[in-house]
Amino acid sequence: AQKVTQAQTEISVVEKEDVTLDCVYETRDTTYYLFWYKQPPSGELVFLIRRNSFDEQNEISGRYSWNFQKSTSSFNFTITASQVVDSAVYFCALSDLGGSQGNLIFGKGTKLSVKP
Amino acid sequence: SQTIHQWPATLVQPVGSPLSLECTVEGTSNPNLYWYRQAAGRGLQLLFYSVGIGQISSEVPQNLSASRPQDRQFILSSKKLLLSDSGFYLCAWTADGAPYNEQFFGPGTRLTVL
Q: Cα(B18)–Cα(B14) distance, rounded to whole angstroms?
C-alpha cells in the first residue's frame, strides 16, 4: 500500500538557518511521482516540485533543494537561509499506478516556523 | 492561464443543515477534478474525483456527495451536515489524461458545523 511519512510534525528555526524537511514513502510500483506542496497560513496549497521515480538527480531552485534517494525511499526538502515567509505547512505526496486517476497520497505535513 | 475558484471561502452551518460548495476551473478543458478535506491539524484526504461530466468516484464512504454538472464545475453537497464534516475543503484540478501531473488547488472553503 502507498504511504507517505513526514516524521517531523513541527520545526522551529531562526531566520537564515538551513532546514531540512524529511519525507519517506512506500510503494510497490516502479513508476511513481513525488511532490512537495507548501500551505501558507492562507490555506491554499502551492505546488513546489514534481519528481518521477526514474530521475534521481537532485534539484535546486533558488533557496530550495530536493534530495531524492530511491535506496532509502526518501525525498527530502531543504530550505537554505530560511526566511520568515517560508513559515508554512509543507506536504510531501506520492502518486503511483495504484492510485485512482492520479490520486495524491499526502503525508501529514510538517509545520515550519521561521522566527526573525 | 488556468485558475481555480472556490466559494464560499468560509461557512458556518448548523448540524442537520444542507451543504453546497462549488468549484470552477477556468482556462482548461476536460480537467480531472478532485475534492479533498483537511481536518484540523491533519493531512489531506481525498473525498471524490471526477474524470468527466457526470463521472464521480468516491474514495471514502461518508455523508457527502459530489456532482459534476459541467466540464469545469465540481460541486460538493450534503443533505444533512454532521459535526464531523467540519474542516477545510480543497478543490483541485489536473490536466486530462495526465494523472501524474501536479494538481493545482483552489483557495479552499473553511466549514464549521455547530
A: 9
Q: Write the residue in B43, B103, B107 that is nearest to A44 by C-beta.
A: B107
Report yes or no: A43 and A103 within 8 Å, Cβ to Cβ.
no
- Three cell numbers, residue A71: 535506496
Q: For residue A36, give the C-alpha cell.
A: 512537495
pLDDT at residue B101 tops 90: no
Across residues B14-41, what is the average pLDDT? 92
At A12-64, the pLDDT tens digits run 999 999 999 999 999 988 889 999 999 999 889 999 999 989 888 888 899 99
Q: How far apart are CA B65 and CA A104, in angstroms?
A: 20
- The verdict on a CB contact (< 8 Å) between B103 and A106 is no
What are the chain B neighbours of A94 within 8 Å (beta carbons)?
Answer: none
Residues of B in contact with A95 (CB under 8 A): 99-100
Helical H segments across A36-111, by residue range: none
* pLDDT (0 to 100) of residue A56: 85
Task: For chain B, say whether A43 makes contact (Cβ under 8 Å).
Answer: yes
In angstroms, the separation between the Cα of residue B90 and the nearest Cα of chain A is 8
3-state helix, strand, coil in chain A (%, to 5): 5, 55, 40
Question: CB under 8 Å to A115, separation ≥6 — which residues?
Answer: A12, A13, A14, A15, A84
- DSSP class of residue B71 equals T
Cell representation of residue B37: 478535506
